[in-house]
Amino acid sequence: MDCVSPSAEPVVSKTEGLRAGSASALLWSAMSATLRNDAVVALQTRQEKRQHATALQISQSSAILPFAICTLHFALCLSSCPLCLSVQSSSWRPWRSWRFISHPLSPLCLGGEFSIPVFRFDIKLSLRQHRTVSIDKRIGFTTTIPVEVLLAAGLVPIDLNNLFINDEERQNLVCQAERAGFTTITCGWIKGLYSTVLKHNIRTVVAVTQGDCSNTHALMETLMEQGVHIIPFAFPWDHDPVVLTAQLKSFRGRFQVRPAQLRKTKQQCDKVRRIVHRIDRLTWHDNKVTGKENHLWQVQCSDFNGDPHQFAHSAKQFLKQARQRKPLIEDIRLAFVGVPPIFDDIYEYIEECGARVVFNEIQRQFSMPFRTRDLVTQYTRYTYPYDVYGRIRDIKREIRRREIDGMIHYVQAFCFRQIQDIVMRKRLKGLPILTIEGDNPGPLDTKSKLRIEAFIETVRRMKRA
Ligand code: SF4
Hints:
Layout: H1 14-21, H2 25-42, H3 46-51, H4 53-61, H5 64-77, H6 82-90, H7 94-110, H8 116-129, E1 138-141, H9 147-152, E2 156-159, H10 160-165, H11 170-179, H12 188-199, E3 204-210, H13 215-225, E4 229-234, H14 241-254, H15 259-284, H16 291-299, H17 308-323, E5 332-338, H18 346-352, E6 355-360, H19 361-366, H20 375-381, H21 388-401, E7 406-412, H22 420-427, E8 433-438, H23 446-464
Parallel strand pairs: 1-2, 1-3, 3-4, 5-6, 5-7, 7-8
Helix pairs in contact: 5-7, 6-7, 6-8, 11-12, 12-13, 14-20, 15-16, 15-17
The protein binds iron/sulfur cluster (SF4).
């Protein structure tokens, strides 16, 4: 891929633009450092808050100016601004009230960019949860995490991988990261994630520090240099439920989510996931869903596109429409194993060759395909962040159940998971396997096309014989 496009600079967000253009731009810049501190402090656990008591005091004392300005503003527009009334009434501790005032009011009212939809949303959150809310509720993450925690906290989860790969300028995003200093031999996903965070001005990212990829560590550090707040989450490599319980407890503590809230959100998420499980069954059992459709629905389960309710509605509609289709006819049924592909058209090309993917291994894991009663069990049965043997057991089971003829192992260039191909081939002896490597986003290259075509033809001959 040629990285010479001039449009390299990250896009300035709409909010930033409005701030810069507003009459209170100077005021905003004076307050922004304090607000950033506040947003960070809001996401700390109680324990961390105690540890950082001194820092908090400094942060609060530096807030005297915004507090005074906002109090004055409140007094002036008390009768004309319903947001002020609501915010004040929801805040019962004076020392905390400046937080509510300075977050929703300063950029909206003082900046002159007051908008009704934002106003309603903020009021709803403030009144219902009595919790400090950042004006930006989007939380990015680098791979599947216990998304239930973010949803229970009233935040908007964003799987950065989905955001990157669906971006019309995904190739350009990789180039932007290279211009920022990432080498050409860094994984394309990592480069894409870096630029995606900056492009969309995502201020907080949950990074999986164990169970995904060591590149994530450097990605976190480069993002921290850009002022992004990083929250680590680690899956214990040995599936230890005690360690995972502690991780989950710390994670939900950061967002001040209670266990009861979490249980309720898990039940709601499970209902949504069950719709996607039916789509998966319609793929391999009823043969009414294509490999690409199966891939897309399952991969979106990592963040439900930020809105589980809307996602469930769309999935139900798709399910209804897919049930009425005639069954697809192909003679070769394939498994697609490994990280989701960076290629745009691999599923379409496989179908052009007369085969169909009826099992997307990792994507299916994102949909949490097992019935579980609690989050710890759910995230210990989820195979992706742990050793390869759990994944192989799952693959073997599904190969039998779905009557699979051959397997494509997708590997990403410069990814450590490539090495696991050795173990896969050893443990899945007897099954025809093709390993395909992808590097940057874009269509399949000619060499990969030829290899896929030849592989499908070989599987076909083996099946006939
Ligand atoms: S493909 Fe591999 S190297 Fe790239 S982000 Fe995923 S795990 Fe890391």
